[in-house]
Design brief:
By secondary structure, the chain is mainly α. Helix content is about 75%, strand content about 0%.
């Protein structure tokens, strides 16, 4: 494994560490305000401001050439819907289930969704078959979710 690969893995690990913290903080903000949906709006507003600042101040990383002229196809804009759904659901439900249970269920959902996207090469992603090893990994993740949440 290259040093660059390990650095990228470390950043993703750090992002994962932050998700339960964000869920707990936003759940607390929702309780403090007495309005969990407004806590979601505030979180998304702060996230927008940070992303906009980064986009304006940081150099554009090298990447593939644009796919073509014109705007992206409509379905590609839907990612924001999934972010909002995640933020609002974890803000509303996380404090009721407990952050650990909420996040482990989110992780299981991510693993199942990612396996399906990979297996069927959905959303223009490269194919990676759901072989026995990956299926066993998903089953163990489901078992771990059940044990953790029980």
């Amino acid at each position: 494994m290259s040093g660059e690969y390990l650095r990228l893995c470390a950043v993703m690990f750090a992002a994962g560490l932050g998700i339960p913290v964000m869920a707990a903080l936003n759940g607390g903000l929702g309780r403090h305000l007495g309005a969990p949906l407004w806590a979601g709006v505030i979180l998304l507003g702060i996230g927008f401001a940070v992303a906009l600042t980064a986009a304006l101040l940081l150099p554009v990383p090298a990447g593939p050439a644009p796919a073509g002229p014109g705007p992206p196809p409509a379905p590609l804009w839907a990612g924001g819907l999934f972010v909002a759904f995640y933020i609002l659901s974890v803000t509303l439900i996380g404090p009721r289930l407990g952050i650990g249970t909420a996040i482990v269920l989110v992780l299981l959902g991510q693993m199942v969704s990612a396996a399906l996207i990979d297996h069927f090469a959905l959303l223009s992603m490269p194919a990676r078959r759901l072989d026995t090893e990956r299926a066993v990994g998903l089953a163990l993740m489901a078992l771990g979710t059940w044990l953790f949440s029980g």
